[in-house]
Design goal:
Pfam families: FAA_hydrolase. The chain is of the alpha+beta class. It has a domain of 29 residues. Helices cover 13% and strands 19% of the residues. The protein has two helices and two strands. Strands 1-2 form a two-stranded antiparallel sheet. The longest helix has 4 residues.
């Protein structure tokens, strides 16, 4: 949080997402997200976000 706050103003309620901790993906205990999976996040009094994952496709110019 300290490093991030050197570049931007953090407000109460801000979420800081840092990615996957070291070693988690290599353990094999947790499956990767796949096309069709849905991730839903809700914060009481703020709202809900729902994201459905789709297959990745390269940008038009890279095909």
């Amino acid at each position: 949080v300290y490093q991030l706050s050197q570049y931007m103003v953090l407000e109460p309620g801000d979420l800081v997402l840092t990615g996957t901790p070291e070693g988690v993906a290599l353990s094999g205990r947790f499956p990767y997200l796949q096309a069709g999976d849905v991730v839903e996040l809700e914060i009481e009094g703020l709202g809900r976000q729902r994201h459905a994952f789709t297959p990745w496709a390269p940008p038009e110019g890279d095909r």
